[in-house]
Amino acid sequence: MFLASSNEGKLREYRALAEATGASVEVALLPNFIGVPEFVEDAPTFAENAAGKALHYSRFAPGLVIADDSGLVVPALGGAPGVFSARYAGPGASDDDRIRKLLGEMLGKKGADRSGRFVCVTAIAEGGEVLGLFSATAEGEILEAPRGSGGFGYDPVFYFPALGKTYAEISREEKNRYSHRGKAFHKALEYLLATHSDPTRD
Fold first, then answer.
1. Low-confidence ranges of the chain (pLDDT < 70)
2. Cβ density class 108-140: b for 16+ within 10 Å, e for less
3. What is the model's pTM?
4. Which element (helix H / strand E) includes 73?
5. What domains does the chain contain, in order, with CATH numbers?
6. pLDDT number for residue 159
7. What element of type H or E holds 182?
8. What is the pLDDT of residues 121-137, one digit of tens each?
9. Which of 68, 69, 95, 202 is catalytic?
10. Which of 71, 78, 148, 201 has minimal Cβ neighbours within 10 Å of its Cβ?
11. Is 198 a catalytic residue?
């Protein structure tokens, strides 16, 4: 199964997710990803971006292609950062820049107004056809200051009440079990194992 990305970090995360399930599924980066025409993620929803990306890149690789779109949704900010999570602080911004902007927007908000959720939609496609869409969320709260040194993105300010820690404080095993991406991937994998005799094929 090919991952529609050139990001080695995301590949490691997906391989860890696959390993955690105990299933014999191999995930590899899409061959010659940088040589393939880029897919622009400009749709208004996570589902449309994930499906469009998987569909687009499945035309350039044999076998199954997996893609996702994910982000942080804060109801008190009208759903922002949402699908713009990676671009929230402008082009070239760092994770720290995005966190600073988010915390600035959250100044003065208390209680339920600090609730937020991570959303992930994972898409599976093959040969220019979307086979399935799988979504999951993780509910939490936005802290007033970062905590923890792990993770990436908004993890240091996303407090996960079920574990009493931020996403930047939990272990990789805990994140694989409870994260939005982990839960969406598990749904996708269950589908593949039920409908494909050999989901590992390239």
1. 197-202
2. eeeeeebebbbbbbbbbbbeeebbebbbbebeb
3. 0.89
4. strand 64-73
5. 2-195 (3.90.950.10)
6. 97
7. helix 180-195
8. 999 999 999 999 999 99
9. 69
10. 78
11. no
